[in-house]
Prior knowledge:
By secondary structure, this protein is mainly β. The protein has no helices and 9 strands.
Amino acid sequence: MTSQLNVDTIADKAGTGPVGLTKQIAPKAFVNFSMAGTTARNSLNFSSLTDTAIGKFNVTMVSAFTDTNYTASGYSNGYASAGFAGNQSHGIAVENRISRTTTVYAFDSYIGSYVDSIENRALVLGDLA
């Protein structure tokens, strides 16, 4: 038997806030940006980007996580530095280049060397403070 549920809004029992997720984890932060600048194209719980070197950015979030054990993962595509040209996927590292805090983590783009990528997306999972 198939079912269909169509709704505009789901709220908690009191009708005053969002529902709690049970045995699920929702993203608590994300950012989409180009390393050609420090402005996000789209984001959630995102404060700012700091360009620290070619292919190396620090991402700052608005709301703090409970500790530094959150998961930050990302993707880069299309590079614009270090003599590379084109639009090819390459490895990224959200690494411990800096001392991670509850609001700041490192986002690096690397393909044999660090490169400024034009398409970068990062997603963060964990518990907010």
